[in-house]
Amino acid sequence: MTNRKVGLWLIGAFGGVGTTVTVGLTSLCRGLAQPIGLVTAKPLFQNLDLVEPHEWVIGGHDVRAGSFYESATGLMERSGVFGYALLQAVKNDLDQFSKNVQPGIWINESSTHTGENNHIVLCQNPKNAVAQVCEHLQTFKKVHGLDRVVVVNVASTEPIYPLDERHQSPSALLNSLTEPCLPPSSIYALAAIQSGCPYVNFTPSLGASLPALELLAQQHKVPIAGKDGKTGETLLKSALAPLFAARNLRVRSWVGHNILGGGDGRTLNSPANKESKVKSKDVQLPSILGYPLQTHVSIEYVESLDDWKTAWDHIHFEGFLGTKMTMQFTWQGCDSLLAAPLVIDLARLIDFAARKGESGIVKPLACFFKSPEGVTEHDFFKQTTELENWVRSHHPLSAR
Amino acid sequence: MTNRKVGLWLIGAFGGVGTTVTVGLTSLCRGLAQPIGLVTAKPLFQNLDLVEPHEWVIGGHDVRAGSFYESATGLMERSGVFGYALLQAVKNDLDQFSKNVQPGIWINESSTHTGENNHIVLCQNPKNAVAQVCEHLQTFKKVHGLDRVVVVNVASTEPIYPLDERHQSPSALLNSLTEPCLPPSSIYALAAIQSGCPYVNFTPSLGASLPALELLAQQHKVPIAGKDGKTGETLLKSALAPLFAARNLRVRSWVGHNILGGGDGRTLNSPANKESKVKSKDVQLPSILGYPLQTHVSIEYVESLDDWKTAWDHIHFEGFLGTKMTMQFTWQGCDSLLAAPLVIDLARLIDFAARKGESGIVKPLACFFKSPEGVTEHDFFKQTTELENWVRSHHPLSAR
Amino acid sequence: MTNRKVGLWLIGAFGGVGTTVTVGLTSLCRGLAQPIGLVTAKPLFQNLDLVEPHEWVIGGHDVRAGSFYESATGLMERSGVFGYALLQAVKNDLDQFSKNVQPGIWINESSTHTGENNHIVLCQNPKNAVAQVCEHLQTFKKVHGLDRVVVVNVASTEPIYPLDERHQSPSALLNSLTEPCLPPSSIYALAAIQSGCPYVNFTPSLGASLPALELLAQQHKVPIAGKDGKTGETLLKSALAPLFAARNLRVRSWVGHNILGGGDGRTLNSPANKESKVKSKDVQLPSILGYPLQTHVSIEYVESLDDWKTAWDHIHFEGFLGTKMTMQFTWQGCDSLLAAPLVIDLARLIDFAARKGESGIVKPLACFFKSPEGVTEHDFFKQTTELENWVRSHHPLSAR
Amino acid sequence: MTNRKVGLWLIGAFGGVGTTVTVGLTSLCRGLAQPIGLVTAKPLFQNLDLVEPHEWVIGGHDVRAGSFYESATGLMERSGVFGYALLQAVKNDLDQFSKNVQPGIWINESSTHTGENNHIVLCQNPKNAVAQVCEHLQTFKKVHGLDRVVVVNVASTEPIYPLDERHQSPSALLNSLTEPCLPPSSIYALAAIQSGCPYVNFTPSLGASLPALELLAQQHKVPIAGKDGKTGETLLKSALAPLFAARNLRVRSWVGHNILGGGDGRTLNSPANKESKVKSKDVQLPSILGYPLQTHVSIEYVESLDDWKTAWDHIHFEGFLGTKMTMQFTWQGCDSLLAAPLVIDLARLIDFAARKGESGIVKPLACFFKSPEGVTEHDFFKQTTELENWVRSHHPLSAR
């Protein structure tokens, strides 16, 4: 067993995904759970010396006061996950990690923060905010004697943020930081990159997805990955569309209707925030199928579902001699539980990329994302092959 | 335009699949249909000089008296496919091809034939029956001046046929032909192989799937392929199971309930025939997932559905921290229309294999079959990659 | 056989519903169809001497030039209904009735008519338009020697039309007719009422649903009924919600997602028109269940579906000890074919009401409508009981 | 508050249903749950002075050693119901009631009991077994000073038991009791009736459903009701089929596929036991619709589902002009939680019937049962009207 210690810094730590990542890692650490849903638990990855559960130290930011245990209890009661006995067994671990969660940064601009999100550090402008986040990261690393800190954005989806010339180069961006020029997700991303921390954007928010930050990541030798974790309905699309393509069946329309509750659902109830999400979900099909088709994606907040997302997809396709046929599916998944193991996978793999000296966008991680950066391939199986090839490029003898 | 003429000999010609193959090829020939659902219409296959619609001459066997036009009209009226105008436009072509359909062979043994299947040639034993089929094939080839005849079994599913030592070698089998030793599907397969005709078994019946016939195909330099076309629910399984595997989600149970009417459905209403089908549908999941799981496949005959098959699949899986989630799908497809383009694909590809001098089982065709012979891989996308590799091994510059 | 002849005047005659009504009545008349889907074909109604298929003479208005045969052929080709043989058999009848279809009225105001809807009579104001429609109705009645003309609105859904004090009394309304004050549907309704024609509004448009016209109908002794035929998803809601109520299961959310193509779908693609429809579909559940709950109804136009509507409903309910459970359904129905028999039912029953001297809203017809006028009961089975009681109030010995 | 105390004697007490009844009544008693899912909590029943939660004393028989708390914990862990906090709050109550559960009776005949069901009293013949059960009931009543004891069968489904002339009259049956002549469910029923205890059969087992016991119940002035609680898929059928009937839509086929785990599912895995269940589920549709149609019901044991039952129903119907349309639904319910409130309802109502002097089959309770005794009406809403009429016959002013 090594003495390695690596930090996992979660932006939006007390949300459903951040909480589940923390419950999951502590449960794995204590041998109370199996690594189901973890891609990196598969034989292929066993030679990579990825960070093990007991080697992670968890911290992060959140605009809500609270604790991992409190959030976990809420998830258990509302969504029926985890189980009482498991939470008791990891309560102490959760409480230790809760101490590492800092208030979220908040730029003092026109948009006022909502009543419940008041665990914040007010900053005058993006420049100050970046500095504040950098300080939090440095303190975390120092206090716990960490070899490295990986930053992952698991906060609520932001509205679409319009880009302009200030976002095209590092210098233009850095010169604009005294005025409003970035959404919160990108402030955290900038701070992570400047602090040399590998960065993953698991949400559809802007994060590091602008030319200025992509270039900056290369300059700072920091690997980054994003964006928007591919957990459910979109994952299925990216597996089923290749089937229709392979059989030369012509998809005429593909309608997806998503309903979900919980914090993520509530955020999406705002039309601006929903727009980011829908946009992220609706680009794949023409890309995979190779022709335009009618697609429609809708997402509605349904309070009673809590963290359970149900998607209904209706695929109308034409077979031989113009015969119209139909496939429908429903997917009933618990979003946080689908997302959390992928966050752990990504943290492990971006840390690995950092160790291997990679920087900028790590394209072989595309299979984890709805809107993979720097990659136009949306076919899940082709993306998976890229990931396998990448692993084997580093460890040629890795198991199939 | 070449002067090439190739025969397509359909066993069970007037059934739904055989009829749709014939309507389809004549419609394609007259420019009345697009090649939707034809895998070999994709760019990858364009350099292979595959047999074109106008180059096929269709014939076959059937135990029913009838005609392609009559069967096609029945399908149109009951299942709402083809359209009136299309059938009128190809009626003459259908009638020409109907003339090439010979009565089915019938061995004079204990099991008596049913009343409606009385378009038969009574044979004393398998030896006579094989000779009769060979004569039909030779006549067909000679009358139409064909370069080659491809034989495809699209007849109703037979009950499981037990194998013994007589089926292990060509000599043992050939010495047993004066007594009952083969089901009808295998008698046709034997005749095809002895006549040098490439053979495809699109059904779950025995066909050429016994050591004696596989060896004989090699000896006669005849390529063969089978068995049981992967058209609907099983196709979906072989595309979705790899997704669960890739994400390390643990499938706990996978239940598939199929309902269909039509001739195929009616045959499956007999428990013995159903057994063949269910067996063919139920082997893939443990193979792809790599662990045992509870699976259940049922098929029921529902008269009102005619040729439309509806499958409902319920997939119960465990995600992170043991959280149980569910995917369900329904598939509403018209069986004959899904099968027919694959039959055309297989006819084109097995003819190509023959031209390239391949013999015995053509394993790269596995992606077309529920129970691919000589292949243990059931993952549809890996099977597809094998097909692509095979094409490129013959034509390295083939399009992606 | 009587010498009775009754007119059926369809507003929007060449649309899917109007066309199917006409194909249906002519097919029934010629003994080519069974009265499946016709409520009034049930034993209960056999003593009422309702108008029989051969007694109807069909006419109407449409803003499209065309014919019943042309529309019917289009429906057959796109949506796979009717069948070629049936349409040939009734072609002559359809052509006779097509001659009775007049151009639609069009008020010469700011909103210009679209290019394809150019089969119109331009009118200077509502007053002229009403006069024009009255003339059409009188001519129809006179030419064919009809005992009565029943007017049914089956035209496309209009946007919501705001009401004001002009719509509160007959006199106020009649004094306003020289300026824009009514949507087209209400102009037709006013003309019907003034002409003494029983009027049915099968759409969510305004029609006769304003105090001024309801009072006018009473004054003119004209029975009216509406609005918005209950054909599919809403029908199911009104049958299933009573089940949850009867078992005291608490529905927490009910989400309905509708997709459809065809002319109706295309109209709904306009947000203003969609609003009328969604509003009509979303009022029932709290009424039946007796408590507020989260409901969501969406409708999207999916071109490839043509006249087939698919609805997916997700019902999330709480059982004993707060246990959350789920029911989902999908409904795949052909809208015109579901609507047409109900239009025939309503025409027969409102004619019956007229014969019996009823006037104003005929409330016992509530079971046919999504937004039944003058009735707060949405439980389908209670509504059906009201219909049965009404029948028995006229014919006490009617069969169960 | 009265001093009334009434016994609820559950046969199969520690099964999922019996356990949930007990958790439910104790939770209601302590104000920890709302009466959701209880029909008798509706306003209609408020004047009937039905037995309140705190007035029940629970006991019963079970062939498994165990306790309510143990069973409840198992259900919580496997099926995610109840919640940890609730079970802790009622643990003492459960433990008190567990003391009242007696071993099951077991006749010493050829069929040997299985290993895990060994909490039994061996009896030589039915006569002894009945005497033993009577003694248990008397002791229970005496020890707790109960006004009355209601007996409810919630044990596992038995195989179909063939009837003969011994089962036609009380005297014939009572004279046969020294030899094997009744399944266990009927032995309990006989003992209940002889002890003057109202009896409810919530399962498809024989119970009191034989002429001899129905007559005996009348002679002993004991009200009885059964059989097979209508909790899920069959309930939906009995609400949806009337809709198709009301609209004169012709159902061509209705296929139901049920999957479930848990104890009930495991029992049904035995073909003989499954036969009872399927038979009970398959009789309603032709009765409600009024014509024969193809129906198919299947039930499969799927271990991973535990106590959650999923039903998929596919309804294929013909609309106007022979147009085929489809409705599908899936129902995901937790069987024990659906059944338990109905058991409480039935216990309250059969006690009420006893107080009102009713005896023999209480037909107005038909809406609770899949195979209602003495009643041919299967339409849920008509059955519900019968129940309402019965209530009002006793209390004319009961609320709607």
How would you sum up this structure, described in words?
4 copies of one chain form a homotetramer. The longest helix of chain A is centred in the C-terminal third of the chain and has 21 residues, at 335-355. In chain A, the strands form 2 sheets. An 8-stranded parallel sheet of chain A has the order 4-3-2-1-5-6-7-12, with helices on both faces. In chain A, strands 9-8-10-11 form a 4-stranded mixed sheet. The first copy, chain A, has 13 helices and 12 strands. By secondary structure, chain A is of the alpha/beta class. Chain A folds into 2 domains: 6-229 and 337-394, NAD(P)-binding Rossmann-like Domain (Rossmann fold, 3-Layer(aba) Sandwich); 233-334, Dihydrodipicolinate Reductase, domain 2, CATH 3.30.360.10. Chain A has helices spanning 16-29, 68-79, 84-98, 126-144, 170-174, 184-194, 211-219, 233-246, 262-268, 271-281, 284-289, 335-355, 380-394; strands at 6-11, 56-62, 101-107, 120-123, 148-153, 199-201, 223-226, 250-260, 294-301, 308-318, 324-334, 360-361. Chains in contact: A-B, A-C, A-D, B-C, B-D, C-D. Chains C and D meet through helix 1, helix 8, strand 11, helix 12 and helix 13 of C and helix 1, helix 8, strand 11, helix 12 and helix 13 of D. Strand 11 (324-334) of chain A pairs antiparallel with strand 11 of chain B, so a sheet runs across the interface.
